[in-house]
Design goal:
single chain; about 210 residues; alpha+beta; six-stranded antiparallel sheet; 12 strands; about 20% helix; globular
Length: about 210
């Protein structure tokens, strides 16, 4: 479980493909604090540390993860937003983030907001995905590349987020450009409510058959 408050970005130093898996080796400031089997969110994707060596650590992404996220687009030298799992002993500064990326989205616009920036993202959407809670609401929460953000100006298949200078400088948002692919995780509360509503609807339909 995570909060979407990114600690820093890690640098990708090696990528090894093994059958359908990708082994990613990264380095960051807290490598010496890590341990094997620890969960870390990488651009919002929860991955498990499988080895630690010479100031680096390695995680493995399987096909399901690669298909749903931008992990397969990473190259050596890229910066990845990282967050260690949430300590349940303090304030939750972001929102409840599972680290289970739902899908990718494309950056379709970046606008200067006088020192901050508005990023617009577009994602694939249809009625079945909406039923599963894959949608955004105005002033609701969304996770973009692991960053907990507030939604503004949502449409059926797009949304905007406002990025302040601190977030811009301390995450990989400063590397994004129009056309960049990002990971998104929709709000888990919205997913549960959507699922509950669908079960109620289905139940009523079965009763009326």
């Amino acid at each position: 479980m995570f909060s979407g408050i990114v600690e820093e970005f890690a640098n990708v130093v090696n990528i090894v493909k093994e059958k359908e898996n990708l082994h990613l080796t990264l380095t960051c400031s807290f490598v010496n604090e890590l341990k094997i089997d620890q969960s870390i969110a990488h651009n919002g994707v929860c991955l498990t540390v499988v080895s630690i060596e010479n100031g680096t650590y390695t995680v493995t992404a399987m096909k399901e993860t690669i298909d749903r996220s931008n992990i397969g687009y990473l190259k050596v030298g890229d910066k990845v937003n990282v967050e260690r799992s949430l300590l349940m002993n303090g304030r939750l500064d972001g929102h409840i983030v599972q680290g289970h990326v739902d899908q990718t989205a494309k950056c379709i616009a970046i606008a200067d907001a006088g020192g901050s920036w508005y990023y617009t993202f577009q994602y694939q959407s249809d009625i079945e995905m909406v039923k599963r809670g894959y949608f955004t609401v105005d002033k609701g929460s969304v996770t973009v590349n692991g960053v907990s953000l507030t939604v503004c100006n949502p449409t059926n298949d797009s949304f905007q987020v406002a990025i302040i200078p601190y977030t811009y400088e301390h995450t990989n948002f400063h590397q994004l450009k129009v056309g960049s692919i990002v990971n998104i995780e929709f709000d888990i509360i919205g997913k549960y409510l959507s699922r509950m509503n669908q079960l109620i609807v289905d139940s009523h339909l079965n009763i009326n058959k």
